[in-house]
Amino acid sequence: MAVFIALVLGIIVGNYIVATRYSISIMVFVVVLLIVFAVYLLNKRIKESKIIVLILIFSLGLCYIQSLNLSWKNEALGKIMKHKVEIRATVIKATNKGYKREYLLKNIDVIGRNINSDQKILLSAWDFNPKLEYGDIVSIKTKIHLPEVQRNPGGFSYQKYLKYNRIYALCDVNSQNQIKKLSNNGNFILRALFRLQNRMKGVIDKYFDNPNNYILEALLLGDKSLLPGQIKDDFRDLGLSHLLVISGFHIGLISYLIYLLAEKLKLSKGKRLILNLLILGTYIVITGCQLPSLRAVILIFLVLLGGYLERRIDIYNLLAGVGIIILIINPWSLFTVSFQLSFGAVLAITYLTPFISNRLPIKYEKIKTLIAGSMAAQIGLIPILAYYFYEISLVSIIANLFIMPLISLVLWIGIFFILMGLVKFNMLTYITSIGIKLILAVVLKIVNFIALNFNTSFLIGRPKVLIILLYYLLLYYVLEFLKENIIPYNENYKSKAKIISLIIVLFLIFQFGFTDFKELKLVFLDVGNGDAIYLHTPTDKNILVDVGEEAIVVRDFLKSQGIKAIDLIFLSHFHSDHVGGIMDIVKEFEVDRICYPVTIRREDRKLLSEINKIRKVEMQRLVDGDQIEISDLDFEVLSPRLPLLENSPENNNSLVLRLSYNKFKVLLTGDLEVEGEKRLLKKSINLNSTVLKVGHHGSATSTSIDFITKVTPRLAIISVGDNNYGHPDLNVIKRLKKNKIEILRTDKDGAITLMTNGQSYRVSRFIR
Prior knowledge:
By secondary structure, the protein is an alpha/beta fold. It has 26 helices and 24 strands.
């Protein structure tokens, strides 16, 4: 276990230190010295040799991850990003995505560029014939590009996700003319296994309709690419996501079936070991070698190997051994939610289940163990689940109690169903399919009933890493404190009580103690070519100005901050890039009040009416001269003004707000254009502001020189993304620079955060 911890720490430290050839050369030299020193100490049998070995393991982990990061950074394919190229590659995996297919490519050869690479590329293609399969060598005319990075707090980095799965870049084809199949040289065993997988899918699709076929493909074959989003969400909210992937639970059931078969055949320990390895190895290849199933197979193999060699089994050392093997194969897997949940669940169940089980007042041992195991996993995984999903399930234990036995039954019958379907025993296949349909109907009814009628999850936001460490430290000492062999009021008891008290104090300090409640926080979220601004007031009020075209960015940001309710939403105007996500926001969060401009069309009234059907929200229409005070903030409405402007009416009649917090001023202009700016200038009002949210994404039709001169901002923020409109216009950028105004853009900087005490401010960019 100590070796595993040293390796993990080395990988973590190495991953967050910028790698250079020079630094890696130094580390290699240090590793060589440590090896020599460790060998010397081991020969002399000196006690300190163990410490040197652990330092060596730490250094090896650090060197390993740094060398991988450096090679990733200097990858030759980086030279051709976004260039039209022709590549020759080998298909190593094919996945059906419904309307399109995805192919994982390797052995990349860029024609005419003298570039070869062993990295993987993910190809997306429309579902046209001929379909590619494992081992096909193809020629593709395409543009290769890097995946999206995380651009907002609480967002998702597709680039990191693919990197951790050792996929370097993406490409796509929209026409059959862009892709040509040349030959096939795949391994015949793997080709046979993948064809077997397709036959299994064919059997499932023949006897089941949507969504049952997709559920079975997820349960039995590990393919949840076509699983309906609502089912995924419901299972996640109930803490049942692990039941929809090939996990240790599934592998354990299959291993038990193999055990029963071996018992019937009266096989020796050695033959049982080989049988398990063959069947489980074949199964995880067919199901895509997913990390939880790989962990489970290696663990089962090591347990059986220990039994065969008649060695005492220590579950913690075994788990550490499995972890070391996986990290040697791919050290980046350490940073995946799959690795952390998989190993975290096993550790939690192993460590906590006996303690919980002994204290449950339940007579039936199996039910008690099931509940204790479910409770152990939930308690052990709370910080990890909160870190990645921002919320934890409140009914996971009860839901598992009902659903897990039914899913187990589906798996047992499902394996028999697949076997019967493959050998074409049609009557038995049909009968078992009816049984599976009935069980799945019950499962979906229960899941749907709980999801609709109970508050199934508790939003807590993303905890800090230090808070997570303190949680596990507190959990450990509380368990030690409650052990029966500690006599109350002895020294050991008192010392543990003091440690627990100290951890709780530190927990509260780091969670709540360093927040400056006098500061205003503004976050200009990167929602592409749209607007979404979040404000957190000094008195803990939450405000939004626009929500972007889709709610996903705003939703994930709010959830990551642990925000359940929004006190006020300003809608600058009703273009979709500003209000398209409003319905989803209202569905997921409590909203007290929505303010909108007087410019109102029939379709806009319909939208507001639909909002009121979902949730009763106070609606307030704003015009020039209105003023809204919330906390210590003052929102002065500068536009629209009656009569409304007729030129580009939606944009020029945008809601223009001047936010004041002591001496700090922000001018929020929506999509205001030059005509609207001229009207503001004629009013001779005070427009002077510290920060200007540039109108209409930096369009050529906005941000005139007279307007800039009147506002005199120190900082200009442009909310913009990839677009075909030429936003932001080069002349706008030049005008701002000429006036020595700092410019920040969401397309280059990601989310932009301002913190101010009303006098001074500081700014941070999410992408540096």
